[in-house]
Design brief:
Elements lengths: L1 E3 H7 L17 H23 L5 E3 L12 H8 L8 E4 L2 H12 L11 H9 L8 E4 L5 H14 L5 H6 L1
Parallel strand pairs: 1-2, 3-4
Pfam families: CPT (PF07931)
EC number: 2.7.1.-
Keywords: Transferase
Length: about 170
C-alpha cells in the first residue's frame, strides 16, 4: 500500500489545502490544529494496514516549523508503536532540489536569485531530529538504487529502531 502526503492531499478539501503538505514558516496557523489531526488520521490508517498484514510505503516529511511546535513526528511514532517501521531519511542537496523544481514546476529561485524561504526551511527542518534507520541521497542514487538500498536494509537488518527512539 502506498500511503503518504500526496495521497492524503488529494483527499483533502480545497479549503484545507495544502493539508499535511503545509510547509514550515507558520504561514497558515489557522490550519495547524487540523494538520495535527490529519497526520494522526494518516498514521492510524498506516497502523491499521500494517496490523492487517499489509506492507505499507509512506512518502511523507515531518517538521516542527509551525507557528507553535506541534511535535507531530513523536506523536505519529507512538501511533505505530510495536509495528515494523523502517524510517528512511531521504537527502538531496538544495541545488539539486532547485533544479528539479525548475524542471517539474517551472518554479525555482526568488527574483533575488535566492532559494525560497519555505524550501530552505523544509530542507533543514525535515531532518530534525535526524534519527533514521537508513539514509539515502537521491542526488547520488537513482530511485531504483534507493529502493534497492531500502530492500537490502529490510532483508539484512539490523532491525529498525528509529521510531522506537523517536517515540520517547
Amino acid at each position: 500500500m502506498n500511503l503518504g502526503v500526496d495521497r492524503f492531499m488529494q483527499m483533502t478539501p480545497e479549503r484545507y489545502q495544502p493539508g499535511i503538505g503545509l510547509r514550515p514558516g507558520g504561514e497558515r496557523p489557522d490550519l495547524e490544529s487540523l494538520i495535527t489531526t490529519l497526520y494522526q488520521a494518516m498514521y492510524e490508517t498506516i497502523a491499521l494496514h500494517s496490523r492487517m498484514g499489509l506492507n505499507v510505503v509512506v512518502d511523507v516529511g515531518h517538521h516542527n516549523g509551525y507557528s507553535v511546535p506541534r511535535d507531530i513526528l513523536p506523536s505519529c511514532a507512538r501511533i505505530l508503536k510495536g509495528l515494523p517501521v523502517l524510517f528512511v531519511g531521504v537527502h538531496c542537496p538544495i541545488e539539486m532540489v532547485m533544479e528539479r523544481r525548475l524542471a517539474t514546476w517551472k518554479a525555482g529561485y526568488t527574483e533575488e536569485g535566492m532559494v525560497p524561504e519555505p524550501v530552505r526551511l523544509w530542507q533543514e527542518l525535515v531532518h530534525i531530529p535526524g534519527i533514521y534507520d537508513l539514509e539515502v541521497d537521491t542526488s547520488v542514487n537513482s530511485s531504483k538504487e534507493c529502493a534497492d538500498l531500502i530492500r537490502r536494509q529490510l532483508e539484512e537488518g539490523p532491525p529498525p529502531s528509529a521510531f522506537r527512539r523517536i517515540q520517547s
